[in-house]
Amino acid sequence: MARIRIDENNVNIRLDKAISNILTDKSRNYIEALLDDGLITVNGKIEKPSYKVKLNDEIDITEKEENIDVLPENLGLDIVYEDDYVAVVNKPKGMSVHPGAGINEGTLVNGLLYELDSLSTINGVIRPGIVHRIDKDTTGLLMIAKNDEASKSLTEQLSKHECNRVYHALVYGVIAENKGRINAPIARSEIDRKKMAVVKNGKEAITNFRVLKRFKDFTYIECKLETGRTHQIRVHLEYIGHPLVGDKTYGRRKVIGDQGQFLHAKTIGFYHPKTHEWMEFDSELPDYFKEFMNNLE
What we know:
CATH class of the largest domain: Alpha Beta
CATH superfamily of the largest domain: Pseudouridine synthase
Shape: globular
Number of domains: 3
Number of strands: 14
Radius of gyration: 19 Å
CATH architecture of the largest domain: 2-Layer Sandwich
Oligomer: single chain
Order of helices and strands: EHHEEEEHEHEEEEEEHEEH
Distance between the termini: 55 Å
CATH topology of the largest domain: Pseudouridine synthase
Strand content: 25-35%
Number of helices: 6
Helix content: 10-25%
């Protein structure tokens, strides 16, 4: 556990920003993940990222996961693109992005350590190269930073909403509108701390969607993120009454199938950290997703 004390240079600013100012070797994404997991306390209490810090506040930061020994594994990853700065990988269903909570093997990070010759170390030993995440049962494309320069660039692009992140999803019910914009703040649920929820004083979260195809009892949609909150698409779709098919956490009580939520990170676009050239990649829907929709025809 690390303990920091707020000095006069960081008074009356947001908790997440104050920690970033002090712990300059840690990324904003990493700090936000610790806050989301309740691993940061202020004077012994869990506070929201928006909490305004006061002089001499004592902040305890727990990074117990860092003790995990993360080993390379040949997991046959689908590396879509790679150069000296970045890689793009197509993550399969059922694979966690990084170790944690008793999981230290079979993750995307284990596979990356085997496949790639270098990874950024900014986000610690259990998240090397990771600048954004998708859920274990979400499939699709992720950007990977191979060095610290790339990590800083991609993280900044994410924070400025400059990346293009497009997901395809299958939801319950028939959405009447052809397109829509969900603007509803998200934070950890006050009822169930294992879940996220739309909360009045949560972090800004915006998801744009458009209908691709309607079925009798389902709708196939495209979602484009303006922000990247934990479980954002899953929470937002539940919020508007059209939860993801197969989502055991935010979906219907009776879950269809055993594949997990029908959510695929289909497209990722970003500026190359070194050349600043725009790069965009697209991926096919996984077979189980396509087969399920074919059966709905």
